[in-house]
Amino acid sequence: MARLESIREQVLAGVSRLPDEEVPLARAAGRWLAEPVRARLAAPPHTCSAMDGYAVRAADLARPAALPVAQVVYAGQQPGRPLEPGQAARLYTGATLPEGADAVVQEELVREEAGRAHFDRAVRAGENVRRAGEDVAAGAEALPAGVRLGARQLGLCAAVGAEAVRAVRVPRVVLLATGDEVVSGRTPDSNGPVLAGAMAAAGAAVVRRTVGDDLLEVVAELRRALAEGDAVVTTGGVSVGARDHVPKAVAALSGEIRVHGVPMKPGKPFLFASVGGKPLLGLPGSPSACLVAFEVFGRPALLRMAGAGRLGRRRVRLPLAEAVEGRAGRARFLWARLEEDGAVRPLGQDAAQVRGPALADALLHLPAGTGALAAGAPVEAWLLEDDVP
Amino acid sequence: MARLESIREQVLAGVSRLPDEEVPLARAAGRWLAEPVRARLAAPPHTCSAMDGYAVRAADLARPAALPVAQVVYAGQQPGRPLEPGQAARLYTGATLPEGADAVVQEELVREEAGRAHFDRAVRAGENVRRAGEDVAAGAEALPAGVRLGARQLGLCAAVGAEAVRAVRVPRVVLLATGDEVVSGRTPDSNGPVLAGAMAAAGAAVVRRTVGDDLLEVVAELRRALAEGDAVVTTGGVSVGARDHVPKAVAALSGEIRVHGVPMKPGKPFLFASVGGKPLLGLPGSPSACLVAFEVFGRPALLRMAGAGRLGRRRVRLPLAEAVEGRAGRARFLWARLEEDGAVRPLGQDAAQVRGPALADALLHLPAGTGALAAGAPVEAWLLEDDVP
Fold this sequence. Notes:
Oligomer: homodimer
Strand order of the largest sheet of chain A: 7-4-6-5-9-8
Largest interface: A-B, 97 and 97 residues
Number of strands of chain A: 26
Shape of chain A: elongated
Helix content of chain A: 10-25%
């Protein structure tokens, strides 16, 4: 992806991480960590049993023996007293080990009779014990910066006693759909909901606007959008025709066009500019081209602003379910379904189609110069998510 | 996964799709379609140009020629009149083709001079034309039932003029965390945010409650939860010890325990019951075991209620970054990171650990009987998403 990758780097060089702020954990879902989360509490918080069973001193059980059961400890309780040499304690999963105990024998291997626990085998110190801080020691890093706070990450934060985190501010993005056909409603604006939803799913706060094919109006709306947003994303009007006002409006606003036209299909007319220090991403108007350009350049740019450590989709190499052909001078992207057997099957190839993206699990990337690929050949798949806004 | 798969089928047989309802598109995000979406409008709505260029009658250009440019049509406009034989029309991408035109020649290949367009080569009918309904014909199925409405799907619905859809009702789930340690706060309830978030990300409306280790209280809370929710999910108290009240409470409520204990690690104590016709999923209390049991049984069950066509995570086979060992009598699940090169690296192996799930991109499934797997060997990876609640 040499050329495309270098264009992507150019785009990313034009956006910066937004400032960060203190956010209570209860309101941090979907944000990215600006700083690592350190453990206020160790996980687990106390040295505890990994099993329902009997806590012992391993030294007492170098060989089979029977020991009096001196106490019972449930998961919600602190042990009342230390475990004396020669004693056992009944313990449930998660119960804190009494002082002195250093191993747990699982209940299936123990016979309790008349207050005595019978052990049929030798026990090693540490067996079935989870040491305090075994997952995360107190004070240690629980999560690094750049991680997104989804359900599992929020659980870890709760486990280590984090009540607030340093998170990057939510990017405000103005999405400006251009074109008389969009304003008049003659062509349904399907890019609007797709992009607004995809950007919201990628953590942005999105404001949607439309503007017709009039240069002065486009200039005015862009000025307003740039004043309001941390970034502006436009759709349509970005090619080189008489009605393509976005590049001209950028020039009128003394913006610097850094990228205009990229060697890929679909998505070729993509534009990236810096206007008054703010990034402007100009996406083509055709639905599939619009969305591919967003995936290749737009999403990574927004994620960098939002503080994400990983800017691309998760990428894997998967076998093709059918043959496809790459192009000589440009990269090719194809929407694809993931089949039951783990292969990927392309879903039609028209730049403007809207059905492919809606049915796709992955976006296949064929770098420029990829020749004919046979069924079964491995291909780079960018794994899409549901992107529920 | 023969045994685990048959247990999963047993669980799925105990849950049903909820009723469906009419939902305006603007409020349908995250829902699953109960019925296919049919196209009220074709996509594209009109036969249009796929390029900036010149519309012609291909019959006029069996060989190179120059034609007068009789009209200009922009994307937002209807052509003013038909294209007469021997004429060309200037057209922009997305512009409707004038009646009579059947091909578009892209502008790079045409020289316009003094009102005449010069064509240097023969033209085929249909070239660079997108026929009305090419993506989706009017009246045809745009999306099948069982599809989730994320950003890309909402865009397609907008493109075909759908203003409302038949969607399955949002499942109401009561999440009941059991255990004195959870009620007292002595052990942070990390399962609570993880599961509540994962269930919300999977489309459920979640109510969270806690209850201590008291059988009568567990019975009372379960009764209340079953009255309120379409399903109940419990954490903790599901094993076979003296304090494991969930199975006893199910019995006290005359529920039918259909699954109790599954051949996998972690997650072994999982319980599934039907109580008064409602499903109850009992997850273990250890964080990783809780979440693995949710992924294997809980999430598919909730997704079936919500009307999803695909109940499991997207699954692929990826190479292992390091060697791992399976188990003889039970399946093994490992949290794993997806590396740059597309290999998966397991993240620690303790059942109760909370850091692995928070750093994982995938859950690896080693079916029972999987022996030693070397680095590089392919392994079944269930692809996780961010699961932002």
